[in-house]
């Protein structure tokens, strides 16, 4: 028990620790990593043959590729769109679902069109064989 508490205090951000202690704060827990934009290196290549991308095999298949902070959706046999997975409302990167060609953020239920004409930041993509290139 003592070790668990010590581990919690080491890993929890300060506002969480203070609120557990009954000290109210108006602050959010985030790290610099959360604030980083996708494609920090300018572009990435994704091997679509990896099992984690299996959902992208069929049209309308999508994934939240959190490792690269990208929402990916296949819109045709030859095109996959890529978006910044930060919600335009308050930046949530998880909790996405897809309905009627819109991504829905579970935090406050807002909908964002799953095309490059909406509010989600869209990136340039190209498919060559099993390689998807996503670039700024
Ligand atoms: S953070 Fe996404 S709807 Fe509010």
How would you describe this protein?
By secondary structure, the protein is α+β, with helices and mostly antiparallel strands. It folds into two domains: 1-30, no CATH class; 37-135, Rieske [2Fe-2S] iron-sulphur domain (Rieske Iron-sulfur Protein, 3-layer Sandwich). It contains three helices and nine strands; from the N terminus they run αααβββββββββ. β6 (102-105) and β7 form a beta hairpin. The longest helix has 10 residues, at 2-11. The model is unreliable at 13-21 and 23-27 (pLDDT under 50). The protein binds FE2/S2 (inorganic) cluster.
Strand order of the largest sheet: 1-9-8-4-3-2
According to CATH, the fold-level topology of the largest domain is Rieske Iron-sulfur Protein
Helix content: 10-25%
Which regions are unreliable across 5 or more consecutive residues at pLDDT < 50? Answer: 13-21, 23-27
Question: Structural class, judged by helices and strands?
Answer: alpha+beta
Considering the protein shown, what is the CATH homologous superfamily of the largest domain?
Rieske [2Fe-2S] iron-sulphur domain
Beta-strand share of residues: 25-35%
From the 3D coordinates, which CATH architecture of the largest domain would you assign? 3-layer Sandwich
Shape: globular
Could you say how many structural domains there are in total? 2
The N- and C-terminal alpha carbons lie at a distance of 47 Å
Let me know the average pLDDT. 85
User: Tally the helices: what do you get?
Assistant: 3
Largest sheet: 6 strands, antiparallel
CATH level 1 name of the largest domain: Mainly Beta
Helix-strand pattern: HHHEEEEEEEEE
Q: What are the bound molecules? A: FE2/S2 (inorganic) cluster
Q: What is the β-strand count?
A: 9
